[in-house]
Recover the amino acids of this structure.
């Protein structure tokens, strides 16, 4: 089994929001099984970020 980690600097607020919407599966995309989205979990959240609001990552 392999894992791939890609990192990229996010230079403005709109890119931060877009990346967090993608990572939290908040956008409607055809390749996402929305019936299983409730199974997604954030394992480590020391800043107390709301996972249902992508703009909270900017704070």
């Amino acid at each position: 089994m392999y894992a791939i980690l890609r990192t990229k600097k996010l230079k403005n607020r709109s890119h931060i929001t877009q990346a967090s919407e993608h990572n939290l599966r908040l956008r409607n995309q055809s390749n996402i099984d929305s019936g299983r989205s409730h199974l997604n979990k954030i394992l480590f959240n020391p800043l107390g970020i709301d996972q249902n609001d992508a703009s909270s990552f900017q704070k």
